[in-house]
Amino acid sequence: MRLARVLLPSSPVPRIALERDGCLYDVAELERRRQILDEGSTTAEDFFARVFAVGGAGLDVLDDGLCAGVRPTEARLWPDELLWLPPCLPERALLVQLVATAEDEEPRYHLGNPRGLLGHQESVPFPPSEPRPDVEISIAALLGDELRAATVDEAERAILGFTILLGWVARERERTSGRSSARDFATTLGPVLVTKDEAGSLDDARVRLRVGGVIEELARTAAPSLSFAESLAFVSRHVTLLPGDIVGAPPIEGGSEAARRLGLAFGATLEVAVDRLGKVAARPVLGPEPPPFRRSKS
User: Fold this and answer.
1) Is there a single domain that holds both residue 66 and residue 178?
2) Each residue's pLDDT tens digit, 65-84
3) Is 43 part of a structural domain of the chain?
4) Which residue, 61, 85, 109, sits at the end of a domain?
5) C-alpha closest to that of 19 among 55, 66, 85
């Protein structure tokens, strides 16, 4: 399945959508037309409950219908008329970013700020003093089960699906204030959550960047020395992971450098496409000058 979380202009409540062949379909309308949403069951608007807490129960039936060609026009959503949200629930998520390590080293990671998660096509507000934007490109796993001191097999089963993660970096702030504050302002996620069975192996998935009309494909190296499941098992020895949590793989080598070569700048839109995961777009901008954090002494 390919799941999205979107906001329609006609409703303040985010909706679940299914993507198939580049088209989006409203789950609530699909269920109404199939009359399979029983009274008292989980509503189609509750993304966390429907996707993470119960593993997408019932959504597979709707997706099978889409694959079979049952695609009612009335359930179709038009991307130009909606707002894409991160395919998770930021207020209930933990964001873990794995860091590249040597083959014989233990995995390293840092905890990110899930409140800074942004969706597809959103502007990314950088600290106003930053001279230029930078980005690190990763593939992220979203979890559907709790992991606590897990085995590798348990970690593998806990992966619900994958999406694209753009970790924005304020390099000047990193130089003066350290790693955490240089990354906690924004992370782009999405646009869709692709379930594990549909995504397949992503070790050799092509990654392409586009800024303006210029495209560059990253040269993927050999598969990482540690699989996602092995890294998850390690992290779960130190941090309890829960359904809906997000774990980003180590950044793809060369992504940041490629974005700079393509001329990534404030006001320019970056598009990143990954085989089987789709394409995510974001536009870094300079944010407003924040108010002082100290009281005036006058």
Assistant:
1) no
2) 999 999 999 999 998 889 99
3) yes
4) 85
5) 66
Closest to 171 in 3D by CA, of 249, 257, 269, 80:
257
Region of 109 please: left (phi>0), alpha (psi -120 to 50) or beta.
Answer: beta
Query: Distance between CA 19 and CA 71 in Å, rounded?
Result: 11
pLDDT digits (tens, 9 = 90+) for 213-246: 999 999 876 667 788 999 999 999 999 999 999 9
Q: How far apart are CA 140 and CA 189, in angstroms?
A: 8
User: Which residue among 69, 85, 101 closes a domain?
Assistant: 85
Q: Which residues of the chain have pLDDT under 50?
A: 37-42
Is 279 inside a domain boundary? Answer: yes
Tell me the whole-structure pTM to 2 decimals.
0.93
pLDDT of residue 219: 81
Count up the domains in the chain and report the number: 2
pLDDT in the model for residue 14: 94
Residues 143 and 195 in one domain: yes
Residue 222 belongs to a domain with what CATH number? 3.90.850.10
Closest by CA position to 231, among listed 135, 118, 139, 93: 139
Phi/psi-derived region of residue 271, left when phi > 0, alpha when psi is between -120 and 50, beta in every other case: beta
Q: What is the CA radius of gyration of the chain?
A: 20
Domain that residue 223 falls in: 90-286
pLDDT tens track for 265-291: 999 999 999 999 999 999 999 999 988
**How far, in Å, CA of 181 to CA of 200, rounded?**
34
What is the pLDDT at residue 283? 98
